[in-house]
Amino acid sequence: MTRWLKISWVSAVFTFLYGPLLVLMVFSFNQARYTTSWQGFSLKWYMRLLDNPQLLDAFFNSLTVALISSMVATALGTLGAFAVSRYRFAGRKLFFGLVYSVMMSPDIVMGISLLMLFVLAGLTPGFLTLLIAHVTFCLPFVIVLVHARISGFDPAVVDAARDLGAREHEVFYKIIVPMILPAVLAGWLLSFTLSLDDVIISFFVTGPGFEILPLKIYSMVKLGVTPEVNALCTVLFLLTLAAVSAAHVLTKEIKR
Amino acid sequence: MNERQGFKFIAVFLNMAWFASFVLIPGLMVVGISFMTRDTGTFFSPPLTLTQYRELLDPVYAKVLGTSLIFSLNTTLLCLFISYPFAWILSRASKHRRPLLLMMVIIPFWTSSLIRTYALVILMKANGIINTLLSAAGIVSEPVTLLYTDFAVYVGLVYSLLPFMILPLYAVMEKMDLRLLEAARDLGANTLQVFVHVVLPLSFPGVLAGCIMVFLPAMGLFYVPDLLGGAKTMLMGNFIKNQFLTAMNWPFGSAASVFLLVLMGLMLIIYFTFSRRFNRHQAL
Q1: A17 touches chain B (CB under 8 A)
Q2: A26 touches chain B (CB under 8 A)
Q3: ipTM score here?
Q4: Which of A10, A67, B3, B260 is deepest in the core (most CB within 10 A)?
């Protein structure tokens, strides 16, 4: 392949990936409401955003769910990764099978299966159901990430700690957790991002009483475009970008 | 129970219980309900039948299935066509540039695909950027209809799923031993022969993995056809969503979901069979 062709192919793909996002961001600063022509720089859509209690509520709800579900998923997943790498137990293979099938199975199937479970269990769709669903789809990512980190260790370290009199929970908190901290943090950040961005699963498990941002954006876009959405999406994109960059730095730390 | 056993019990139990309650049981429920009959009061009732599966083959629904499969297949091929050269160039970029380029692929991967779909709406509107540019350049006099067409749905699906194809391809290409390519060349192979006989077989596991990771989600992304196809294009995701939320036909929606699960199972079997054969081949 000639150098020229290579450069144009790569730039075309990157333009495709980033062009639409860039246009969105630029137009979030546009003065005009309906036209897509540029009518001067303005921060008014960001101001409008701050005056919209519904949007702010949805944003706050999303953050709450993302924070709590990512923390639960990280705590549970770290414990789970420790368990599968340290213990042999019945159903260990089934457990791994479930972890991978959650990562592979289409979101929509998980969405409807949880919807059916919650309806039959008589749970009102809202905060709690959303939390359970988000923990469920984040958990496998934490387990796989942390498990990869733990398997890289010399098991003699744990044996030595036990010989020196450490109890099992002390082995976990004082030896394992500090050693795998970067993987745990990366798992937490990825869970946070996944939770903040999820549309499909949340769509099925939340109710009208508890609105979260992606679904609010979905309904706003379906009803007709308002420029506040541009501003909101820009804020959200930058937030994800920050979280991803942090996670990336941490995963680099893991490989070291 | 000593302290160690206790800790082990808690660590294992909590995780197993979570997966059993929120993955295994709901999954089995989908399968179970797909064999039942629709009931307006309780959502489903017991007589076990194959009615739902028979109905999926009814021409009306078979058409949705067919369209969905075609859309997913074409999306997969488009992604492969765009990603293959791209991943190759990336994997051959200089060592210090590679991490940055890779990071640039990963960023959209972790960004809400809903936001990215919405960005495409802005671009393709009748008075959107593309139409403004086209008429400014004098190429068109009337705005072209881009939004609410199959074309827009394809753009949306490829846009959302492209990184899922690029990353596995890059992963295999980066590990490829370039000396094999040189050896083939030394033995007299031309560029095309090197590609067909060396590069393509060596990258096959990546091609397979990428295709699976694009094909399956392409069927489930209901909001892409919703926002870009104007709800004219009915794909599996939209169909399942409607069965559950509009038609309230749980058994039928479940049967359609089981179809997706079976498809996933088949693809995984294909993947593992091929990659095992490939690894054995490599070891020789």
Answers
A1: yes
A2: no
A3: 0.86
A4: B260
